[in-house]
Design brief:
Bound molecules: S-adenosylmethionine
Largest sheet: 7 strands, mixed
Order of helices and strands: HEHEHHHEEHEEEH
Shape: globular
Strand order of the largest sheet: 3-2-1-4-5-7-6
CATH class of the largest domain: Alpha Beta
Mean pLDDT: 93
Distance between the termini: 34 Å
Low-confidence stretches: 1-9
Number of helices: 7
Number of domains: 2
Strand content: 15-25%
Structural class: alpha/beta
CATH architecture of the largest domain: 3-Layer(aba) Sandwich
CATH superfamily of the largest domain: Vaccinia Virus protein VP39
CATH topology of the largest domain: Rossmann fold
Radius of gyration: 18 Å
Length: 242
């Protein structure tokens, strides 16, 4: 497979939150290297072919947009949903960066700011947007995407995604909202088991020592990096156990 391993020393500065991708107070970003590692680990458990990626607690959409830009060649669609309308508004603007036109528009805006404010930092950011556009074109061009406001706990309609990667609220900057049950991670996993195809892989990550799985649910794999941990599970196992 043609993907780059996370251990490779790639310069991800163009992807830093607030450079080309948009950030906002109260919307945490996600470590780029870990995002890439989680996607590559999940790929081992998925069949070859284009992957449809979904983050059902997407916040600013930073995580899935970074993955779209880094791994365009592996993905055929990116979906981002969140219970918060403000979050989805920012996610929309980030997902637009998965297209040549979105990146060109971002580059033009940053060059305008460079002129208006006379700050060289904007020129560097404009050039980063241009470089991302070049890389996106080399890796397959525009990546189709969709976003929506949705409470992850009340989903009922099937979602045709192959891979979910989601960074759940951990109480510092973000909290569980909507119809959160007593054990929100269990509720999220039950929803995923309900709406995803059986073969899909679900990756849940949080700023915690260990993402706890409900009794009876087997992990495909666990990952621990710094103050974050993640667990990979098969949707079929969630559907039968929860
Ligand atoms: C840690 S943040 C996600 C950050 C995101 N991965 C990023 O890269 O920007 C967790 C998100 O979960 C969302 N959330 C909380 N309760 C939710 C629910 N019931 N359904 C969907 N999203 C929810 C919050 O609005 C918040 O945006």
């Amino acid at each position: 497979m043609g993907y780059r391993y996370a251990t490779e020393r790639t310069d991800h500065s163009a992807l830093a939150s607030g450079q080309v991708l948009r950030s906002a107070p109260g919307f945490p970003g996600f470590p780029v290297r870990l995002a890439s590692e989680l996607l590559q680990r999940a790929m081992v458990h998925l069949e070859d072919g284009g992957i449809r990626l979904w983050d059902p607690c997407c916040g600013s959409g930073y995580l899935v947009t970074v993955l779209g830009l880094l791994h365009r060649d592996l993905l055929t669609h990116v979906r981002a949903t969140d219970v918060g309308a403000d979050a989805v508004g920012i996610a929309d603007r980030n997902l637009e960066l998965l297209t040549a036109e979105g990146l060109a528009e971002r580059e033009r805006g940053l060059r305008r700011s460079a002129r208006d404010f006379g700050r060289v930092a904007y020129i560097e950011r404009a050039e980063a947007a241009r470089d991302l556009a070049t890389r996106l074109a080399e890796m397959g061009g525009d990546l189709p995407h969709a976003s929506a406001v949705a409470d992850v706990f009340t989903l009922t309609e099937p979602v045709e995604s192959d891979l979910v990667i989601t960074d759940v609220p951990y109480g510092e900057m973000t909290r569980w909202e909507g119809n959160a049950p007593q054990d929100p991670v269990r509720g999220l996993l039950a929803s995923m088991g309900r709406v995803l195809p059986a073969r899909a892989v679900v990756v849940v990550t949080a700023r915690t020592r260990r993402v706890r799985l409900p009794e009876g649910v087997q992990a495909l794999e666990r990952v621990k990096v710094g103050n974050r941990s993640a667990v990979l599970v098969r949707a079929r196992d969630l559907a039968s156990a929860l």
